[in-house]
Amino acid sequence: MGIRVTLPPAAKTLFEKRVLDSQKLFIYKKFLRGGQGGQFFQKAPPLAAGGIKKKMIEVIGLTKEFNGFTAVDHISFSVEKGETLILFGTSGCGKTTTLKMINRLIEPTAGVIRINGEDVREQNPEALRKGIGYVIQHIGLFPHYTAAQNIGIVPGLLKWDKPRIQKSTRELMEMVGLPPEEYLDRYPEELSGGQQQRVGLARALAADPPIVLLDEPFGALDLITRREIQKEFKNLENLLHKTMLMVTHDVFEAFELGDRICLMDQGRIQQIGTAKELLFFPANNFVRDFFQANRFQLELGVFRLKDILPYLPVDKSAGDNDNIMEFTDSTTLAEVLESIEQMSLKESTIRIKDSQGQTMIKSNAEALLSAFYRAKSGVTS
Fold first, then answer.
1. Radius of gyration of the chain (CA)
2. What is the CATH number of the domain that holds 269?
3. pLDDT of 350
4. What is the extent of the structural domain holding 372?
5. Who contacts 122 (Cβ-Cβ below 8 Å, separation ≥6)?
6. Does 50 fall in a domain?
7. Is residue 83 a contact partner of residue 260, using CB atoms and an 8 Å limit?
8. 226-240 in b/e burial notation, b at 16+ Cβ within 10 A?
9. Contact 258, 275 (CB under 8 A)
10. Is residue 227 situated within a structural domain?
11. In terms of domains, do 8 and 142 share one?
């Protein structure tokens, strides 16, 4: 899983015992935001006006039992306005059950769920769901409805007038990469899996809900299509300020799309935090061991060039090499290695620039990896 990268020969010699598996790495790009300056851990996002973070979703002591089996065991968490929280963990850990209790598709055995400060039990389930976007793995498009009709279902239930629905539908199709002129009147069977998933996402956003729930939305797609849609999903303007709670079984997807991750096992929360916190400050042995198989790939995605600058020596020979690659200091090591592989530049000079485009330092791949290990030792010591 991930993007296949071949390291430069010099790096192979120095690090083969620790970083190579049959002289190959598998990495995935842009897992999460990095720290600022030389500090590895980023401070929490700024407070909202008035200095108080608004909790759009609040779960307190949530429990669900099925015939004596406890699927969700007294969990509590909150999701702030504009945040994406990932529910992640072992199969059967209760993540999908938790998600479905948020919009009352499943009723809890005990506990409290508040949406924008209001107890969901005091709301009509149908009215509640109309105000929450919902995307599922198998999409759930109505086969006898066109793409446009599927997208317009919730706005129709909300009594929007026809011109408003048509305008919104066309805008959403453009947003998810489906030109309306070509796809507006197609039925689901006339769409590929990736196109159907785009329609499903547009449908979830049609009524412009402040909260979107996603249950393994890309899980049924092939690997290439899934990665393409993940990249598009992350950059969709309509999602930038929405509160999202997402279930996934893909660790790279969790790191890529989540602001924080809620790691679950056997119905209980093991740890909630940023990807960096889970990797470098695990709450227990389960958390530590859970990421072990992909640890190196994930660490490459966590570390940005700015994080390793204090450990990076100046390359005195930089400039003698015709193969010069430029990156901003916010670029992850995963992205750098991927670019080297894609450009087939095994030996290249790496020029690191700040956000204003000013050159900060010149280096090479071997030095970057050496600095990475020193920086990592500083974090974990």
1. 23
2. 3.40.50.300
3. 84
4. 3-42+304-380
5. none
6. no
7. yes
8. bbebbeebeebeebe
9. yes
10. yes
11. no
> Please, what is the Cα angle at 19 between 13 and 22, to 5 degrees?
80
Is residue 141 in a domain?
A: yes
- Count the neighbouring beta carbons within 10 Å of the beta carbon of residue 202: 27
Sign of CA dihedral 286, 292, 296, 298: negative
Q: Is 72 found in the same domain as 220?
A: yes
Give residue 127's identity as a one-letter amino acid code: A
d(CA 190, CA 170): 18
Residue 234: phi and psi, rounded to 5, are -65, -25
pLDDT of residue 174: 86
The reply to whether 104 and 197 lie within a common domain is yes
**Residue 251 has which token pair?**
């660790």
The one-letter amino acid code at 259 reads D
The tokens for 178 are: 């489906």
> How far is the C-alpha of 322 from the C-alpha of 26, rounded, in Å?
27
Give the count of domains, the chain.
2
Assigned token pair, 15: 């690090």
Q: Which of 273, 298, 323 is the last residue of a domain?
A: 298
Beta bridge partners, 327, equal 352
pLDDT average per 10 residues of sequence, the chain (381 residues): 42 36 28 32 42 83 95 97 94 94 95 95 91 80 92 89 92 86 93 86 86 83 70 67 91 90 97 94 96 93 90 63 80 86 72 82 86 82 57
d(CA 135, CA 217): 6
The answer to whether residue 49 sits within a structural domain is no
Domain boundary among 256, 283, 298: 298
Non-local CB neighbours of 44 within 8 Å, separated by 6+ positions: none
Structure tokens at 179: 């030109």
